[in-house]
Amino acid sequence: MTEDLSPAERYAASRKRAAEQATALASFREMYDFGLDPFQIEACKALEAGKGVLVAAPTGSGKTIVGEFAVHLALQQGKKCFYTTPIKALSNQKYQDLSKRYGSDKVGLLTGDNSVNSDAPVVVMTTEVLRNMLYAGSQALINLGYVVMDEVHYLSDRFRGAVWEEVIIHLQESVTLVSLSATVSNAEEFGDWLDTVRGDTEVIVSEHRPVPLFQHVLAGRRMYDLFEEGEGSKKAVNPDLTRMARMEASRPSYQDRRRGRNMREADRERERRQRSRIWTPGRPEVIERLDSEGLLPAITFIFSRAACEAAVQQCLYAGLRLNDEEARARVREIVEARTASIPDEDLHVLGYYEWLEGLERGIAAHHAGMLPTFKEVVEELFVRGLVKAVFATETLALGINMPARSVVLEKLVKWNGEQHADITPGEYTQLTGRAGRRGIDVEGHAVVLWQRGFSPEHLAGLAGTRTYPLRSSFKPSYNMAVNLVEQFGRHRSRELLETSFAQFQADRSVVGISRQVQKNEEGLEGYKESMTCHLGDFEEYARLRRELKDRETELAKQGVAQRRAQAAAALEKLKPGDVIHVPTGKFAGLALVLDPGLPAGRSNGHRGFEHHDGPRPLVLTAERQVKRLASIDFPVPVEALERMRIPKSFNPRSPQSRRDLASALRTKAGHIVPDRHKKGRAPAADDREIARLRAELRAHPCHGCDEREDHARWAERYHRLRRDTAQLERRIEGRTNTIARTFDRIVKLLTEMDYLRGDEVTEHGKRLARLYGELDLLASECLRDGVWEGLEPAELAACVSALVFEARVGDDALAPKVPSGKAKAALGEMVRIWGRLDALEEEFRINQAEGVGQREPDLGFAWAVYEWASGKGLDEVLREAEMPAGDFVRWCKQVIDVLGQIAAAAPTEGSTVARNARKAVDAVLRGVVAYSSVG
């Protein structure tokens, strides 16, 4: 109580309050109608004190407040603030939020396809835009005081993650960095690195969710809690779920039930009751159940675009209606206003009317295949509470501010591009983090649908593991190399790359290995002492023993290889109709050769392409089995014992045919006893090296030691430990300076191609410095060789599409359709140049598997963008491309981005490329591609 304080204490408290009210944080807090959380206050105070901050907190916890405080500080101090995000949709959303708070005159937007008020003191942008500014030495960087990196954990992304590290490393020292991350388990390690490269950085980690999350499993008609109610931090899995999983696992299969028809009626009745309780509810049923429980709005994550669209249709067919008449009218009003600029003929192609019907009922899909405008409308209606059920792919979880009361996961398995794999604890946390709207919901709910083979313990593991580690995906690129050398020279560039988070993590991992090497060296000293012999140098004696053993092993291997070669040569001589004796294996005995098999190489077996090391004869055994044998069945050479005619009518699939021919085989050759294969003299018996080593061993003083075998055991341990230590030392060497070594190889290749001359960047190099993207060097070589000269704008757009497009289908797809004439010739030349670069990369040991180097250009989008740039209608283009509108728009915008880079990089004199690239941008940027989401 104030009354209990002394006058001096009251005065001190008054001074403290006055000091707090004078801070920027005090005026910032007044802008919000809710109090700030402790972690937000701690981070804001650190920022105001001039420190950089790393804030790691759960999704939906309000960490962006810290980023907004950086904006507030910049405006108050008369400095600039750049707010970076990983995706354009998030940039657009943040631009709208900040414009409302600070006024559109003070906030700008820069993404690959939008530029609004770019000279404003606060600019929202994608991270790539800031990276390009840094390399170009943009004037916009003058007076930059703060950079906010939202979703900084994106630096783990193997395709784009390097950009975050480039920005962090290259930003001027005077810029204060605000890093906002999802909860990661190694925030302190990341903070230590930021401290190293950016100076004083405060790490603030919050595990607290402002809205508590409850986990459920929906099985049949009942929703079960995943965890039992109880005290303490260790939660127990609901025993009902464990019992159900056990019951389902023990439920007999169809075959078991067929075999057990005589099971008691009581058992059958019990099984029927169990089955009636456990099933996977349908999508409309799930939404109705959530609605009845008051758990809408909900986002259902389905890891397939087609399944998201199908889910909406299923709900419509089921007659679901989540909106009343008033809400329907409001939805129609908003949708019509937001899509007014889209022509009617395009609306029909885009499935507008089916989409609108779902929205009016409060149901929608959300995925990357949708038109961006459609996605933004869904987001807006969901936030307003006019759409209550969204079926989405996992891309929705990436930062877009679209919280729900509940999140539903249909399955805990997703396709990762190569195989169906379990989702990770980090992915589960990211997805379920959408559940629970701060200031609206008292609690959030994560619901997982029961599936056959469901494991409650596995789900509990996902739900209980809140964090995942942040791993760097940083790799040098050609563009990065020329930009760095131009700005800093080779030596300084190398030093800068050594400061990357990737190298920081690699160096830290070396610490543990170094410690192990030290322990091993201590052990080696002890072993050396134990193997000491008073008669002589036992280390030398052990070396002779090892050399003898190695030589004997080598000769034994040579003998085996020789016998295999002889056996393979004998197999190659076999013909259909030869009667042989299979010497060993499961099918040993008499056999008739039906087909001698293929020579060494590849054969197209029933499991795809399989590699074989010799012929694989197809035989009929005396026991009537038709089998394809392998070289392992013939450890010794085999020869024909007899010949038999195989009837033309013989069918290996017919049991009768097999029986008749096997009977004839036994009659013809059953009496023949095969010759036993005589073993030859062992190669070691006549080997001079072995004789010499044995003589040296016998003559060595230690050979007569009574404790010779005891010393030998210690010597063997010494040798093994020394070999292991050498391996560890090689690992240390491999991890140290890895980034710099890759950079050195890239610089050597660029020097070979005349992009660099020492610390000088040539004209070709300066052109490469303006080309960003996965195929930067290929684009530069195409400009250098004049591949695109004389192309029409639509033809140039088709060629440029090969630099950005990557098909979702596998390599076995049909050859893509491409424009004819000059465009076809240019695309062919691009592939040839890529082949040349690929060979060069192999020569300079630049490995694509490590994320460095040029992938093959993909021609799959060339025809679609050519048709579009030629003025064809959306309906025709999408029908021929067999591509969703959203994908089409996204690839077109990437083509536009690279065309812009080419227009800036191409020579201005004596070349048509720059002019035609600008024309191509105009030709592609029309219709659905041009519908802007901002302004």
What portion of residues belong to β-strands?
Answer: 5-15%
Shape descriptor: globular
Which percent bin holds the helix content? 40-55%
The CA-CA distance between the termini, in Å, is 54 Å
Sketch the major β-sheet.
8 strands, mixed
Strand arrangement within the widest β-sheet reads: 4-3-5-2-6-7-1-8
Integer average pLDDT: 82
**Number of E-state strands:** 26
Number of helices: 34
Task: Work out the radius of gyration.
Answer: 36 Å
Which spans of ≥5 residues are poorly predicted at pLDDT below 50? 254-259, 600-612
The structural class is alpha/beta
Give a concise summary.
The protein is α/β, with parallel strands linked by helices and 935 residues long. It is built from 34 helices and 26 strands.
Relevant terms:
single chain; 935 residues; alpha/beta; eight-stranded mixed β-sheet; seven-stranded mixed β-sheet; 49% helix; 12% strand; globular
